[in-house]
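Sample pair:
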Amino acid sequence: MKVVEWVKRNRFLTIALLVVVYLLLNLFKVFFGVNILSLDIPNTSKSQYGSGGTVGISPGGSFDAPAAGISSPSLMPQYQQDYAPQPDVKDRLVVQESSLSLLVKDVTDVRNKIVSYAQQKGGYMVSSNVSNPQDAPTATVIVRVPSRDLEDSLKYFHSLSVKVVSENLVGHDVTDQYIDIDTRIAQIERTKARLETILDQATQITDITNLTQQVLSYQNQIDTLKGQQDALEKNAELAKLTIYISTDEIALPYQPSETFRPGVIFKLAVRSLIGFLRNIATFAIWVGVYTVIWVPVLAIYIFLRRWLKKRKTEVKLSN
């Protein structure tokens, strides 16, 4: 009841205090990621480099649990394997893909050298993402180089690194898929040829219209299948390399062979401490800027409190 009475007597001061508290809570949410009003505590297990799923690559080359560091979509596309095998074919059509995790001294310099080397070999850059987080610069570079130069390219990329953290090379034999598509094209072309023969003999407008639509539909299917064949040929000619680069081994996507690594744990703890101190300093700066609001409110509160206390004392003395 005393609180209610005080609020009734000091309405202006109560409103000012509520405004200050609200601003401080918002600042706390911005810099510490915790919404006290709704108890919404963020998930701190996510990597600072991205909120998307990350793919870990073990030193042995297998894809494993998510790893802190570079966010990445599926590293290797899934090629269909439900085609009839063609063991008699000697010149197999193989799509080669490789992924590397490299520990380097200068991320930007290595990234530029990788792109330049791929272009010199007749390849090209598919994508490049360079970031400069607070802890360590990180980059993800995807390039394509002629398959015949894949081994030389890997050796050159190795030479650019301080340490090859992980490496994975995968080959997809798409020969059966290519031949199956070729068979389907031949079947559709025969059907299309029969329809064209019937179309030449048609006299009714409705028949001509329907047959023309069917011929165009089959032609679209043929064009689509030929496009798939062309894509398989080009993918087989140019190997795809995904290179993860960082100055910090922890930021690279791979699954360590040792689950308990004191050195890594110490680094993570130091980073957490630095981040916490940085947040406190930032919060203090914001509080300092907002002194134009909370200092006058506090001064008014102190003044009113002393004035009320003095008045009560005078009333008691007069009585």
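Residues 56-176+233-271 form one domain.
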